[in-house]
Amino acid sequence: MQRMHVMSEITARGLVAALERIPGQILFGRVTAIVGLLVDGDDHSEPIADAVHGILDGHVVLDRSIAERGRFPPIKC
């Protein structure tokens, strides 16, 4: 059974507002936040994951299949 992912406009606005409130200053290129996002079933196309990828500046994606082969951290290149 295929699932449909729907994110309401209220949820989207709340997500953007929450991520933009992360404290920090632009000083010498420092990282001001590390945000973790767990996606359901490794589906990176779901609306929340897609929105977060669009809002944040950088991404590090961990891959379950890489971890199962014993490589840590399982960063997907």
UniProtKB/TrEMBL annotation:
Judging by the UniProt lineage, the source's domain of life is Bacteria
Q: Which residues form the ATPase F1/V1/A1 complex alpha/beta subunit nucleotide-binding domain?
A: 28-76
Alphabetical list of Pfam families matching this protein? ATP-synt_ab
Instruction: List GO molecular-function terms, semicolon-separated.
Output: ATP binding
Q: What is this protein called?
A: ATPase F1/V1/A1 complex alpha/beta subunit nucleotide-binding domain-containing protein
